[in-house]
Amino acid sequence: MKCTLIAACLMGLSLFGTSFAQDKNPRVVMETNMGKVTIELYAEKAPLTVKNFLKYVDDKHYDGTIVHRIIADFMIQGGGYEPGMKEKKTRDPIKNESTNGISNERGTIAMARTPVADSATSQFFINTVENKFLDRANADDNVGYCVFGKVVEGLDVVDKMRRVPTKKTVPVEDVVIKSIRRAQ
User: Fold this and answer.
1) CA distances (Å), origin 104, targets 33, 97, 119, 161, 180
2) Which residues contact 137 (CB under 8 A, 6 or more apart)?
3) What percentage of the chain exceeds 90 in pLDDT?
4) Which one of 36, 76, 86, 125 has the minimum C-beta count within 10 Å?
5) How far apart are the first and last CA of the chain?
6) Given phi > 0 = left and psi -120 to 50 = alpha, else beta, which region is 9?
7) CATH class of the 23-182 domain in this structure
8) Residue 48 carries which DSSP code?
9) Lowest-confidence segment of 20-29, 45-54, 108-117 by average pLDDT
10) CB-based burial label for 132 (10 Å; 0-12, 13-18, 19+)
11) Ramachandran bin of 169, using left for φ above 0, alpha for ψ from -120 to 50, beta for the remaining angles
């Protein structure tokens, strides 16, 4: 048994329902004026998107930005505006990795984009409900939206955000992203 347990640990296998391997997916903590949200990023499934997102994180681009769009039974969107709807400068757009097979389920984070497939820059959204119609396989535009991670702690905070009153999808009170940092 001892040898089997050690081998399982080294191989990252699960015995008795417990995983002994180190989680290889990076995580970030988004601190907001409504609480903290921890997000696991799927670096293997969306390498370009995760690299792009982490570059914005490391550059502290998201510090002081707002959740500028809320549709309670759809998603919350942020990453591109400061209070007063002042748009932040971004880097060049990235390739859409919506072919990765990850579905727009409740709690997942995906890249926002224009109607142009490869137009995502810094803006992201968190799905507050199942939005499988945004998946490439179901999308009207045959492109879909790239999911690149999932909320693993703080979904209750996301639910608080989605309940903020809005006027034409814009929150009437600022939901501030104080910072997004890599988890230690």
Assistant:
1) 25, 13, 18, 18, 21
2) 144
3) 86
4) 86
5) 33
6) alpha
7) mainly beta
8) H
9) 20-29
10) middle
11) left
